[in-house]
Write a structure and sequence with these properties.
The structure is a single chain. The model is unreliable at 7-12 and 14-18 (pLDDT under 50). This protein has five helices and six strands, in the order H-H-E-H-E-H-E-E-E-E-H. Strand 4 and strand 5 form a beta hairpin. It has a six-stranded mixed β-sheet with strand order 2-1-6-5-4-3. It is globular and about 75 Å long. The chain is of the alpha+beta class and 180 residues long. Keywords: Signal. It holds the Pfam family SnoaL_4.
């Protein structure tokens, strides 16, 4: 009987450790997903880059057509830095984040409303994101992102205007950084 209790104690300990590890990984995945939207909105590309795998799959076909593409993280960040800072503000509001971790891979989904403001112009897209992540050391990196657009509000016209202001706006924002 003592042997059975001892074995049961060990098994419960292993299950508990496994649940804790999965909970920690889920928390790290959620942090990466939420950081993705926050860093993009704040123009914190040096931090945003840490959240991406060296190469990732990007699928915005439901929004813009075209094809799914594989891109290097540096190229994606340059593209975003030449676009997102052109807006007066963006807000990628994530909710209902669902995470599944399986070893060194994870998937996540999140509902999204991405609002973009430029002067009097406004455009928002709503839908969901699908993410794939891989564990690198003890960190989780986004290896794929797909938007599933379901509705839009406002005018897409501001999307063509934003790049005209991106470089100047980014320089102004960088000048306001707190430095040593």
């Amino acid at each position: 009987m003592k042997a059975f209790k001892g074995l049961l104690f060990i098994m419960l300990g292993l299950v508990s450790a496994s649940i804790s590890a999965q909970t920690l990984d889920e928390a790290k995945v959620r942090s990466a997903i939420n950081g993705f939207s926050t860093f993009a909105d704040q123009g914190a590309y040096e931090y945003l880059g840490r959240l991406f795998a060296p190469e990732l799959t990007v699928d915005y076909t439901s929004l813009f057509g075209g094809e799914t593409s594989k891109v290097k993280r540096e190229d994606l960040l340059k593209q975003w830095a030449g676009f997102l800072p052109g807006f007066d503000a963006t807000f990628h509001d994530l909710s209902n984040v669902q995470v599944t971790v399986s070893g060194d891979k994870a998937t996540a989904t999140a509902d999204i409303t991405a609002s973009h403001y430029l002067g009097e112009g406004f455009w928002a897209v709503s839908g969901s994101y699908d993410f794939a992540l891989v564990k690198s050391d003890e960190n989780w990196q986004i290896s794929a992102i797909k938007i599933n657009a379901t509705s839009e509000e406002g005018s897409r016209d501001i999307l063509a205007e934003a790049p005209k202001f991106a470089e100047a706006n980014l320089e102004q924002r960088q000048a306001r950084l707190v430095k040593d």
